[in-house]
Amino acid sequence: MPSKNKSIADSLEAILTSAASPEEEDGLKDLGIKVRRPTKLTVVLAALYKKAAGGDLSAIKELLLRLNPEDDADRKGVVFIDDIKNTDK
């Protein structure tokens, strides 16, 4: 008998790989995204991109993680680098 997590993952994969609805396709077109056969995953990633483009740091982190999954072990959060030198000493 498969584990509960495996069946959940299989169900989620089935949902995300199914075709986007006509309404979802229209939403993608509104964003300027042209895809031949969009899936629900396409819609989710477009929504994530929209949030990241609006400055949502958690969405930016998630997109970067999708691009470089091997960086997950190194990534503990968003790091701000202050490279402005304080000369008022």
Calculate the mean pLDDT score and round it.
84
The helix content, as a percent range, equals 40-55%
Tally of contiguous helical segments: 4
Q: Return the string of H and E elements.
A: HHHH
Q: Report the radius of gyration as a whole number of Å.
A: 19 Å
Any low-confidence stretches, pLDDT <50, length ≥5? none
State the shape: flat
Number of beta strands? 0
The main pleated sheet reads as: none
SSE-based structural type: mainly alpha
Q: Hey, roughly how much beta strand do the residues contain?
A: under 5%
**End-to-end span in angstroms?**
68 Å
What does it look like?
The structure is a single chain. The chain has 89 residues and is mainly alpha-helical. The radius of gyration is 19 Å and the shape is flat. Helix 3 packs across helix 4. The mean pLDDT is 84. It contains four helices and no strands. The longest helix is centred in the middle third of the chain and has 14 residues.
Quick recap of the structure?
This protein has four helices and no strands. By secondary structure, it is an all-alpha fold.
Give the helices and strands, then pairings.
Elements (H helix, E strand, L loop, with lengths): L3 H13 L5 H9 L9 H14 L3 H11 L22
Main features:
53% helix; 89 residues; mainly alpha; 4 helices
